Amino acid sequence: MIGYTRMIDFSALGFMISGYYLFFYTLYDGSTMQILLRNAFCRQVDISSLLPNIGLARCAMASSISGSKAAFSTQSVSTKEPVVSVDWLHANLRVPDVKVLDASWYMPDEQRNPFQEYQVAHIPGALFFDVDGISDQTTNLPHMLPLEEAFAAAVSALDIQNEDGVVVYDGKGIFSAARVWWMFRVFGHDRVWVLDGGLPQWRASGYDVESSASGDAILKASAAREAIEKVYQGKMVAPITFKAKFQAHLVWTLDQVKKNIEDKTYQHVDARSKARFDGVAPEPRKGIRSGHVPGSKCVPFVQMLDSSQTLLPADELKKRFEQEGISLDGPIITSCGTGVTACILALGLHRLGKHDVPVYDGSWTEWGAQSDVPVATS
Question: What's the pTM?
Answer without folding.
Answer: 0.81
